[in-house]
Amino acid sequence: MNVPAELARFGPDAAFPPTPLDEAQAYCRRLAQSHYENFTVASRLFPRHLDQHLCNVYAYCRWADDLADESAKEDALPLLDWWQRLLDAAYAGEASHPVFVALRETISQFQLPREPLADLLVAFRRDQTQNRYETLGDLLTYCDKSANPVGRIVLYLGRSGEEENCRLSDSICTGLQLANFWQDVKRDYERGRVYIPQENCRAAGWDETRFAAGKCNDAFRAMLRPLVEEATERLAVRERLAQQVDRELRLPIRVFAAGGEAILAAIRRSGYDVWSRRPTVGRFSKLKILAAAALRSVWWHG
After folding, report:
1. DSSP letters of 41-101?
2. Most CB within 10 Å of its CB: which of 93, 119, 160, 267?
């Protein structure tokens, strides 16, 4: 998203009339389908009647993410506060920004609670002030606001937002985010972020100098191994959740969780060397994951 251009059109200082619903929905579709190439592929795992609603939620998240990451440093927090005010207004029945005009329909139709949408903004604000985490527990509180709300939103879209489902979804979403953190240790460090807990780093003798050198050794492998297993255990609840949700959510749950497991398996195969080469899942492996999840969801009905 071109943040300056979009702020000029729909930002806090822009004067624009309320966007008609059909135009707001088209805006969200364009944003979702043009900005992130994997969105279209991922959305196909869901039933067609959720397409527009997924675009509405994605547009909300895309705007918030770009306000946090693509704005000038001094503008990010004020802009996130403005986005929060628009969210609050939408829940009070008022919206003119195209994202919130469209999102109001999703909120109304699925009784989507405010909390997961607001929690994402908590995480985006935290990104502005924190780039190291002292303990795993500290990191998990970040996942609780940055990853878990997305799963909860999806559950509500699938009319499966019961408390136990949310708990299992939180486990899977945290596992997925941890898998991405361990896959992207090098990338994140180059962007100034370290998600491996600092107490783990100290115990392994892995300081900032070693991160800068970017070379795997036995100490790093020993440090990353239990973190990979932590993520694996959190993903292991996928079948329990898939058995409990509405049938239309079973395929995406199985595919996303299996994708996270495949990333963790790739890290293991690399000998935990995430520095020399980023562990990835090949196209053929992705197709196998999709086929296995589809067979289980459609043929086994379970």
Report:
1. HHHTTS-GGGHHHHHHHHHHHHHHHHHHHSS-HHHHHHHHHHHHHHHHHHHTT---SHHHH
2. 267
